[in-house]
């Protein structure tokens, strides 16, 4: 029987217990199960409140410096990560966060758009359904065996929708007349997920429970991709709406930049390569508070959304963020590079990933037109971009492997030294400039030129 003392606290830690470092590749690092990395323990946090105040971020920054190595990250899915913790500092961190009144979601990741509840263009505020899903999973469905990395995307739409976020289960809000429906699909983003059915708003929770039971029945490691969409539709029975919702929403723009959301002005800023340090974050938050910022939301694509600024203060806030090293334009070339901590922050890293990313920005900005992501990974694990990338530069025992159209662990076309990277990327940018067809993006050009042309570039550089 569960005793009160073994129940999770508000921050997910069993009271008076040390956290258990998670060594399992598939587990999600939380305060209760931090993950061992090259620079100590890492925790990934999803704040329970949609907006935190600048003062909350200052508290988090100080706790990150006191109990970790002061490095903070916002992930591609919009979670906050604190790095460099130790076995005996996770509990004080959790206590400090609780003292500051900052609580976090636990359990299965239920993702909602960063502007949920604020955006008049959204089809629905996803927050109430997401809250009901979390309660149901923690309550009536708590005995289900669900994969630790399972994710549920509840997308109400709007300017910064989650159309491009991959989820095991997706619920996409659709309006028909005045009525709200949710389009249920499994295993992908809004385009790639396999559609199951549409359900009325009142039936969305029941439909989701049907999918979760199907996952449980498939096995404890089952993911959305393992499910049979046709069988699921049959299991939904009469709650499946017999109507087609064929129009899929477009992918959202970058969160970085200025957004007009109803009567609000929202400033999106990107963390340089997804990371900052405690002192920089604290300084930024103090400055933003003095300019009138009242709330900050974490956003997918490694960004923060600043709320409460008047239109007249947007320039000053953007200048402040820019001076602190944050990216304030959607077309900042660095946005097109996915970079992990690398050798500077992770024992598994074989080279300085951020220095290589800086080389790319400096010497081959033409490659970074936003149509593709260049993946720079300190080792074959590929933490920053688990999916395939058109171009990836990945740590190897004997240098930096250049992978074409693959994951960081895939076979490389060539292995380069750190000194060769800048020159090679310059030559690739020149080739793309010369051979690119009218209207082609860099990605399309590189895909058309193919692996052979890239390997030739490396060979020619060595002659
Ligand atoms: S991919 Fe990067 S962060 Fe992940 S283990 Fe390798 S070096 Fe470390």
What does this protein look like?
- The chain has 463 residues and is α+β, with helices and mostly antiparallel strands.
- It has 3 domains: 115-241, Sulfite Reductase Hemoprotein, domain 1, CATH 3.30.413.10; 257-331, Sulfite Reductase Hemoprotein,Domain 2 (Sulfite Reductase Hemoprotein, domain 2, Alpha-Beta Complex), CATH 3.90.480.10; 335-462, Sulfite Reductase Hemoprotein, domain 1 (2-Layer Sandwich), CATH 3.30.413.10.
- The chain contains 10 helices and 20 strands.
- The strands form 4 sheets. The protein has a 6-stranded mixed β-sheet with strand order 5-6-7-8-9-10.
- Helix 8 (353-363) links the parallel strand 16 and strand 17.
- The chain is globular and about 70 Å long.
- The protein starts with 34 loop residues before the first strand and ends with a helix.
- Mean pLDDT is 91; it is low at 1-17 and 22-26.
- Iron/sulfur cluster (SF4) binds next to loops.
Which properties best describe this structure?
463 residues; alpha+beta; Sulfite Reductase Hemoprotein, domain 1; Sulfite Reductase Hemoprotein, domain 2; 3 domains; 6-stranded mixed beta sheet; 5-stranded antiparallel beta sheet; 20 strands; 23% strand; globular; disordered N terminus; binds iron/sulfur cluster
């Amino acid at each position: 029987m569960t005793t009160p003392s073994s129940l999770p606290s508000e921050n997910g830690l069993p009271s008076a217990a040390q956290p258990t470092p998670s060594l399992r590749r598939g587990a999600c690092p939380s305060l209760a199960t931090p993950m061992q990395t090259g620079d100590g323990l890492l925790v990934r946090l999803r704040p329970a409140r949609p907006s935190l105040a600048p003062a909350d971020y200052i508290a988090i920054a100080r706790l990150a410096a006191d109990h970790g190595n002061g490095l903070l990250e916002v992930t591609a899915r919009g979670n906050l990560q604190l790095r460099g913790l130790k076995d005996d500092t996770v509990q004080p961190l959790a206590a400090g966060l609780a003292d500051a009144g900052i609580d976090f979601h636990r359990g299965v990741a239920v993702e909602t758009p960063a502007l949920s509840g604020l955006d008049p263009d959204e089809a629905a505020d996803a927050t109430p359904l997401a809250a009901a899903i979390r309660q149901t999973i923690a309550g009536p469905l708590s005995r289900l065996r669900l994969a630790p990395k399972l994710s549920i995307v509840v997308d109400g739409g709007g300017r910064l929708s989650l159309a491009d976020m991959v989820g095991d289960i997706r619920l996409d809000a659709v309006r028909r007349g005045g009525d709200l429906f949710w389009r249920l699909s499994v295993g992908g983003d809004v385009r790639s997920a396999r559609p199951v059915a549409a359900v009325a708003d009142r039936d969305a929770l029941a439909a989701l429970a049907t999918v979760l039971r199907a996952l449980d029945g498939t096995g404890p490691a089952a993911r959305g991709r393992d499910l049979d969409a046709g069988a699921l539709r049959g299991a939904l029975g009469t709650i499946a709406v017999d109507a087609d919702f064929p129009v899929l929403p477009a992918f959202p723009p970058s969160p970085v930049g200025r957004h007009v959301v109803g009567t609000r002005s929202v400033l999106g800023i990107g963390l340089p390569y997804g990371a900052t340090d405690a002192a920089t974050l604290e300084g930024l938050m103090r400055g933003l508070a003095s300019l009138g910022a009242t709330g900050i939301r974490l956003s997918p694509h490694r960004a923060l959304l600043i709320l409460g600024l008047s239109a007249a203060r947007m320039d000053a806030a953007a200048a402040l963020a820019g001076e602190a090293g944050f990216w304030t334009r959607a077309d900042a070339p660095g946005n097109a590079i996915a970079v992990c901590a690398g050798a500077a922050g992770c024992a598994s890293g074989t080279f300085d990933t951020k220095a290589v990313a800086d080389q790319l920005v400096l010497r081959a900005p033409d490659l970074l037109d936003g149509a593709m992501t260049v993946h720079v990974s300190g080792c074959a694990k590929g933490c920053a971009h688990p999916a395939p990338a058109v171009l990836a530069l990945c740590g190897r025992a004997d240098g930096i492997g250049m992978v074409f159209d693959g994951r960081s662990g895939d076979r490389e076309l060539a292995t380069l030294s750190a000194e060769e990277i800048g020159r090679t990327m310059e030559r690739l940018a020149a080739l793309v400039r010369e051979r690119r067809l009218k209207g082609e993006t860099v990605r399309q050009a590189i895909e058309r030129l193919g692996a052979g042309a890239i390997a030739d570039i490396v060979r020619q550089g060595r002659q």
